[in-house]
Amino acid sequence: MKAGKPQEVLEEAGHDALLRASAEPDLLRAGRAMIVPARQLLRRIRAPLLTIATFRGDPAVRLFPWTQSLEPGDPLDMREAAFWAEIETLVEAGSEALRQVALRWPGYALPPVIGLVTDGGGLAVSGENPSGLTTRWLLDQIEFASPASIIIPFAPDGLWSLLSPRERSGPAARCH
From what superkingdom does this record's organism come (predicted)? Predict the structure, then answer.
């Protein structure tokens, strides 16, 4: 994964696509497999963002939708969600992507929580704040305090595009 400020990574996304695909094909494959079911789930539950997370010592993958006020919410109740068509694919691909990301840390330094954040178009993780489960996580992206590594590039008209004026296009670009 290429660490850097989100706008730097987005500018290089086209140039890096082949390099990423050849350097980390398993992570890229798992990340791509997550996007469509994540988008379907976000539409179903009407959430702007989703964190797919795992906790050290617990193999379960948990899904945390963000609220409309852009705060991480409670995990989905899997007793109900398990029957939704998109969940199985999302959890399987998410498990593999989280496993691939966890390999970046030595076992003794594995963070307590690793989370991947998506808006249903792109996918990111932050090495400095890997949980993806705090309001501060999103603020860190906006302030470039703990920049995310972009696994799958975000759409220029999606929620992620609001993080930096350089990334804005369309109506959001005219706000500044």
Answer: Bacteria
